[in-house]
Amino acid sequence: MQEVSEGKQLPADRHYKYEELQSRPFVTPESGIPENLLHLFHSFGYDCKRKINLQLLDEKTLIFIAGNVLVLLDIFTKEHRYLRSCSGGGIGCIMVHPDKKYFAAAEKGKQPNIVIYEYPSLQPQRILRGGTERAYSCVDFNPDGSLLASVGGAPDYMLTIWDWRLEEVKLRSNVVSQDAYRVRFSSYNPKLLTSSGCGHINFWNIASTYTGLKLQGNVGKFGSVEVTDIEGFVELPDGKVVSGTAWGNLLLWDRSAVRVEIGREGGRSCHIGTVQPFALEDEQLFTFGSDGAVRGWDFQRISGADSDSGSNKLEIEPLSEIMVGHDVCLSSIVKSPELDSFIWFAQDSGGAIWKIDLSFTHKTLNPECLFSFHGGMIQSLDVSKKSHLMATTSLSRSVKVFDFLHKRELTTANFNQGGTVLLWAPLSVSSSQCLLVVGFEDGVVRLMELYNPEKLNVASKHSAKEEAKLQLKQAFKPHNAAVTAVAYDANGEVLATGGADNTVFFFTVGEKYDPIGFVHVPGAVQALEWSPNSHPEKRLLILCQNGHVVEVHRPDPESQQRAETFLLSGLSRRSFRFRSIKFQIKRHQEISRRQLIKEQQKKERAEEEEVLEEEEEIELPPTPDAPSPLYCGFYSQPGQFWLSMGGFDSGFLYHCKFSESRDEDPDQQQDEPFDFLAVDNADNDPIHALTFSANRQFLLCGMHSGSIRVYPLQPGQPGITSMQAYWTLSVHDNDYGHLRHIKCSHDDQFVLTAGDDGNIFTFSLLPPEELEKGLQRQKTQIPSPREGLEIERKSCDIEDSAAYSIETARQRFQSDSVRQEAELKQQKKLKKLADIQKKYDQVLKANRGLPEHVRLKPEELQLDPRFYELTERLKAERLSEVRREMAWEQERCSTAFNKLQEWFRSSAEANVVTVVGIHSDHRVSTYRLPVFSEIPTQQSRSSSTERHRDSSPETTDATVESADDSSQTEEVEEEVLQPPGTRPRMTLGSRQEERLRKAAERAALARKRIENREQEWNQLYAEKPDGNYEDPQDVQDIQEARENIGDMTLKSDVTMKINLKMMSDRKREELRALEENVYKKQIDMNGKIIALRDSKDRLVCWFHGQAQRLQEVQQHLPVHLRQPAPTPPRMLPEEAPETWLQSKLAALRRYQVVREQRCDALKPDEWDKELDESQAEEEIRLLYEQDCLINKMKTSVTEFDMELKLLRQQKLHLDCKIKLADLHKLLLVQERRLLEQFESRDGCLQEKLTGCSVEENSIASKLEKLKQQMKVKHRETERLQERAKALFTKFKTSLGDEHEYEEFLTKVFMKKIKRDKKELKGKEDEEDSDEDSQEEDDWDEEDDICSLEDLEAAVDDGVCPPGCDPALFEYTLKLREHRLNLEDLLTEEKRSVKALEMERETFSKKEKLLTGCRKAAESDLNLVHRELQQKLNSLDVVVPLRLHQIQYVMNESVPSDLSEALLVHETLLNKLQERIKELQEEKIHMRKLYFGAKQEGTRLERRLEDMNAEIQVLKTECKELMMAKFGKLLDVDALETQAGSRRLEELKLKQLKEEAAHDREVKHWHAKLEEASVGSSETIKRNSELSRSMLSVMEERNLLERQVLSRHKKLFKQQRSNYSRHETQKDIERLEEVVKTQAEQEKTLRREIEFLSSPGSHSIHGQTKPTPSLPDRKPNRPSKHASS
Whole-model pTM above 0.85? Predict the structure, then answer.
């Protein structure tokens, strides 16, 4: 991932030769097959399913990938140019340079390259190597075109950034291990790029680090948005990215997270299906989708979208929109390179290239389809047997006809279903080659006629623009599934069609194709082949996809009779089921190979007798259980055929034949081929299709890898005998472009191929030059129309895909005919029976109208008594049979009735009493209560005592050995081991010692302070959250909530121990209490009802008394004054169930009396019409009494009814409560059963957990004790090591500095000698002594005092060497003895520590084991509790609701299904609503805090930048100060932690002593200086005088110079002739000497003055040089004739 160092700039004009790079066909060596056997002639297809398979080189040239070829298509002339891939493994993707001068082709294969081509020369300019392992998935240039980014596919998924001009890798990194669809550099920031693909999007940054440039990537986090494939994205100017989704909405990404999801208003998506943003222009973001629409969106609203509003969705409407087409599926789009152009070219996955104008003005052009192709894989291809015409079909619902000689498409026919198979009718059927047979995926077969419409229109005097046209001749549906194969027999008399519904249908060939019949085959049909005319019988070879092969005779159309079905059951057939023999072939080949190796080894090793005696077992892959798919086959001889298999059995052509034995079940057959031919390099590349050339010179094979293979055939041999030499070329895509169709033209000049990648290629056998000459002479002939075609009625097509097939239609017709016939017969029978019944009724009616003596009896109406007897006997037999059949059921019902009766009567405490209202329909019944048995109170079972033996670890203090003896020993050693007094050690003063101690303390404090500071910084950096930081506690809570959602804890306190036994008992007690409470309530209600029944009984008795009194009163009143008495109440039987079975005579007599009274009441009484006054008063009194009685009776009845109604309401309320109690009881019972089920498991786990805890505590106490002991041992070991170091320091101190015998004495001191075992060691065996010596060696190796290399030489310690101090030698021997003693003690301590460590490790292992057991038990216990809780939570709880409590309303009504509703308590709902308001307020508050924190963060970032700048300045100043002070850069922490050095203190002390001596010497010299100061004063005075004299001399010199000049000027002219030139010259020389002498004296005087005036000049007075004497102050005057 680091930046690659710059290399040498490659020359701009450097390029490769395309002829040397392009992939070439493979030819078997020494086969004689020419390399240029086939020449690419033209490409008719377009791989529209490939992602981003359309680029624009200039305003008129498109470029796209077609298998192993790059196609350059001229938009206007439709001319094609081709570039083959360089690897031969295919081309992964292409991209055009921003300046359109180059384009990159990223290939596929093993270690593929990226080739940069120059345009328009098409010469390879650069080759980029090593970017991926298998294939490139996408590439992109940066905006300035200097860099290229590429993303590889599986298995490495490598993102590489290239400096393509240098052919160098700049940066690389791995993307997510998923396929990438697109990578793109940022248009606004050159250091950013983005990649996207299957379920991911990555944001990359080219960051500068101290090691160089690095590629840092952030994976996009979808968050709450569903993960989706991202095929396209656009970066916005502010750094945000807008990407598409699979469901049609847009996603706005900000800093590797989804900021908002963008959709349309009303919850609609931006597009239907996949959406891709592709451009940002004119403040609009343009997108296209698989719905065929291009829309423009408001860029400002999308860029400023924020999800803080509470929802992460933004709903907007498009600003502009254009619909390309309803059946269009756009997958990529590129812009025209013209300046200010709004033209775009789009790739349609349906098989087209569109030109779209996105100007959105009134002059905007409609979308134009420039080119149309098949969308997806080519299902079938065939060629005309007479002309250079080719027909193809695919699932894109189209059939196309091409003139491949002149590279043009003639016509296209579209249908409702996709085509699956196509066949051009042979010459025997259509001599003009105008008939095409096309099968479709819905089982329909259509016969299409091809003709030239120009000739038709010439006859009809009309003009036409089309060169060819397809017209439907006939359509029929023989299959219920897709048609997979069609074939004509050799004579063209019968057409056979095969389908995926495991049937083969036969038709007669003629003007109209009539069905003959069909046969069933054991699998979906793969291919059909009729036997040639050379075979004695006409048979059809049916190849099934599952490996079955069936051969049937051709049916005779004339012998077939009209039947109820088209199934040809009597047709002769033979079958073959392929059984794999590849294992035997491979085994035989391996044995042959080993045999050959064995023979070679025998020849090489003739002297050896046995070579490879034992044969190794041959390991070969096992044969899979699933059958291998069958791809193709053909006849070789009658009854024999060749097969090409896929899967495990690929790599061979198998020669098979039908067996003589015929099995009834083809699935039980196991037939093996009798011969095979090996196909080279075809183990993973089987043959999908094969065909012979017309002259039988070549066998053409279409391979699984998309390549063509051509095998030359031997002349004169009809079949294939060998497949050794071949010619092969990769044509279609190597991954998914399986070559399923390959054909030769009728003249064997062209080879045509079609693959699953949607590409159609034509190859010529002639060179291009010869072919061009032939094209000038040839012209493709389009069939002429038939006579009368223009007036022929158009054939009916089958447009409904659900239409019946031929067989289904016949079966449906037969069933409908049978049903109609049965219905007619049934109607006739019913009509006849109705007439007979009518006549019989008339006879009975006439018989009843006759007199009785004439009337016929029923017996006489019977024609024959035997009929009646027979009917009665049959009825009796049927009844007895039914009784026998229902005997068991009758007994079961009887038993059940007895049980119910016993349960509901015997077990009931009392019968059910029902009280009925008198004048109302209200009734109240008592509860039927079972006998409530008082269960004795169970003694509370004490739950298993949880023994938590928290046996606190015994804090037994480890016995610490007293160190008194050791301290005494040390004191003795200090006294005895004093070094000899030869070289006394320098003793430091108390101040120096104190200074050393304080320095050591300061160093320790500084070291501790630095460590604390480092820890704080590390802690701060560790706690520093990154940009995607999430609180771990929140993450843990969310994860726990997701895992335990729906699981409610049993206790509010999670630390509380759960006792299932106690909970079960509590549930049992709750259930018992609930039953008792319900029973008491029911008893109370029953008592109230019985009391009301008794009151009614009393009311009935009282009512009867009142009725009698009323009757007595009414007897004395006239009839017209009598009022009707109220209906007397009566006790119903259900109100007194105890009297149901009692038949009382009194009741019968009472009933008789009442009946007589009612009869007597009906007799009218006669009253006297005349009454006296007394009788009138009596009448008034009786009337009043009558009214009172009636009112009392009515009032009593009303009051009783009111009491009954009130009691009924109370009982209804109680019923509701009892029902709720029953539901609660059911819940308690279910909970108690669950608790009882889990009780045993919980008890076992609790006991196991308790045992583990007790043992763990015991081991923990033992470990603590061992830890204390080990601490003591470690302290003792450290004390002994300190003593050893102190002893070595004493030894070094005794030697002093630079001792002559230091090396010898050190060897003596460190020498190991054999010593007697001391008491300290004890009596140990030899193993312990060996271990001790080993430990001593280890200790010596670890000691950093001296190395073992110094002790290798033998040392004689018995003799002191001459010149060495004997006392020092003896002192060294004593020190060595003490060193050995210390080593023995240290060894013993280490042995003890080791034993304790071993014991501690043992206990630690036991503790870990027990901890694991305890945790496992706790985990199991938690799982048991969780499982219990889940089952408890899954129990249903019933809560009754009133209608006003149901607020779950849909469409203003309560839905019938409330399963989706949520039950919430009203108080909780109010709290939630209040919580919503609180959350809104908190949200506002948090938003304020967020903005404040954001501002604070910005301020802190600026402050951080200022502090970083300040730190850099301080670091620079610090470095400068260190350089100025120390002369180099030092570690400040090391200086602070520098402890005091005793050597330094000794040197300082020595310095002080030397300074004192120097001070004394300075004082001595000062005294001498005082003595010399007197002489110095005199010298100063003399020098002063000399200075004054020098000044006077200088003044005199100046005066003389002026005088000389003046004289020279005045007298020069007058006396020039009087003086000679020689004298004048002498005077001048003399004066110059005087001037020089005076100048020297002046300089000397100045130096002396300066020296004397400086400090310290007195100290070196004696060394002052004497001042040179001045010349005489009165020098010889020059003669008055001197000039100057």
Answer: no
